[in-house]
């Protein structure tokens, strides 16, 4: 049985893959639950005189993981002696929340510049000659699991604000879809 009082508990994380510089989010508080959903598709085959259709497997579906984490700029998390969340100069957690949002925006080499921009990522894409690449692929680590995935949804509920109206506590909901290696040529 795990020691619930261990000093430096293992923290879950999201990290970009193949992006330089990388985006690393280490969860200040691990999610209480991780929903892991997998679906597949069956085609209905109907024929005259059949009582019910026959089901034929047609394709695998996505494996979707979703979870919620708390980001709190007022209190230290269980591992804050090793993991510190990003804060602005007024104590707001905006820079930490931008890390989560970075997984939803097209790749850019200067994504850190969003931390200093009032409008976040929008100003990074002002150049009409910009070539957009897909948002970064990431790895989700949680205990022994490390899953290559893409972030398909981030929802941030800001829950508490300082005197400057900067968020200091937020709940972040994240939805991921696993990326599986696919080789269209089964003979290789």
UniProtKB/TrEMBL annotation:
<dbReference type="Pfam" id="PF19266">
    <property type="entry name" value="CIS_tube"/>
</dbReference>
<feature type="domain" description="Contractile injection system tube protein N-terminal">
    <location>
        <begin position="25"/>
        <end position="179"/>
    </location>
</feature>
<protein>
    <recommendedName>
        <fullName>Contractile injection system tube protein N-terminal domain-containing protein</fullName>
    </recommendedName>
</protein>
<dbReference type="InterPro" id="IPR045361">
    <property type="entry name" value="CIS_tube_prot_N"/>
</dbReference>
